[in-house]
Write a structure and sequence with these properties.
By secondary structure, this protein is an alpha+beta fold. The protein has 2 domains: 4-232, P-loop containing nucleotide triphosphate hydrolases (Rossmann fold, 3-Layer(aba) Sandwich), CATH 3.40.50; 237-355, OB fold (Dihydrolipoamide Acetyltransferase, E2P). The chain is built from 9 helices and 20 strands. Strands 6-7-8-3-9-10 form a 6-stranded mixed β-sheet, with helices on both faces. The chain has a 5-stranded antiparallel β-sheet with strand order 13-12-11-14-20. Helix 2 crosses helix 3 and helix 3 crosses helix 4. The longest helix is centred in the middle third of the chain and has 18 residues, at 166-183.
Length: 363
Amino acid sequence: MAGIKINNLVKAFGNVFAVKNLSLEIKDKSFMVLLGPSGCGKTTTLRCIAGLEKPDGGEIYIDNKLVNDVLPKDRDVAMVFQNYALYPHMSVFDNLAFPLKMRKIPKDQQKEKIAQVAELLGIEHLLDRKPRQLSGGEAQRVALGRAIVRNPKVFLMDEPLSNLDAKLRLYMRSELKKLQKKLSITTIYVTHDQVEAMTMADEIAIMDHGVLKQVSAPREIYNHPKNVFVASFIGSPPMNLISCSFVEKGKTAYLDAGAFSLPISDELRGIVKEKMTNTELFMGIRPEDILVKKEKGIKGEVDVIEPLGAEFVVHLCVGEQILLAMLPKSAGFTDISPGDIVFIEFNLNNLHIFDKKTGETII
């Protein structure tokens, strides 16, 4: 198997930079997810690793070997596409056999490898069918099988589940993760879906406008985002970002958000003063870290209620800002309605503060 190392990767299309000086290391046998909005450069990065795009700068190493000038077919990587890319005139068996034929593998070994992969993926009964006779989930498993049968060093997957319905996507997420662990193949998986990233990845690399914003394990990214972009991109509903100012009066300091102010400790005061570029900040609080009460706290008006089964999201007007609170049914607020006045309190143990000018995390 193989690890992958990318040093200062640059790729431009005309005057537009799709990838800007990206450096990233993917450990051997790990599952790395490239996550970000459409157009952030994640697919371009994947295609550069595959050799389908030639970088304008930087270096790509696979298994400690520089591959910038190595042809795609010689990189020993297998790519799984969003649209499956199956040959419509071939049977499932022939689709699976195609990469083996290209490598001139003897026919008896082809049959043996295909039988093993078909059993692994549960597609033995599909081998005589044509792609048009397959469901979305079946076609995706065949596409995976065609990648697996080559026994590559690296799997590259570009939004492979995006064409599946929600129920099948949920099933295939767990199947893909189990399969990757069973095969112990280094995998890079591209998606814009944070749920896929959080549930499948060993590490997530978040990109925006061609720039790498953070690389961490899923829980670390959720609990300790390094900047405003990551904080707002990860989480459903997203983190509340509240515009505020850092104010000192005598021996006390607080964050002034207009409609309310939040006193801060001497320790936090020192950290903020050391790291901020000016007094304009964002405070960040996850919806699940907002406690809604019927008295005492920051006053808010219920704007919208979104029932989600075991929990519900409440949109609250606090001054000129809308804050989202995630409440379990057990919270006892199932009887509130739009227009009701409530009071909120923040879990200050999970408060985040960002520099508004740089977007970087202060705490």
